[in-house]
Amino acid sequence: MYRLQLILFILLLLNGLAATVGGVMMIMDPTGASVHLPLEWLKEAPFHNYTWPGIILLLSNGLLSLFIAWITFKGAMQYSYWALLQGFILVGFVTIECIMLGQFVGWLHIPSYVIGAGLIGIGFVLQD
What is the pLDDT averaged over residues 99-110? Predict the structure, then answer.
């Protein structure tokens, strides 16, 4: 079980750090240039720049994931339920992003889906 908890912690930390950095960069540079996201990708989305997507990314996948990584590290009660929730949030976020962008961007979405699936799978296995 310890090994799975460690893998879960690493996945949460990776997701949290990447989403926090990405979200902050999108907020600071709403054009998306600093994170290599063309502004024209938002032409079908309800956003005119990357400010709101950055805020949503920062809160839902950045800070939340870092909080869950911390409670996983501490072995807090029901950390696996929180990790499971984060996995579903991540997969849902990426799916909605693909729909809004009208495209699947492999370098951006595949790692997120893999991490999300890992969080869901390990979260289920570690249920009390």
Answer: 88
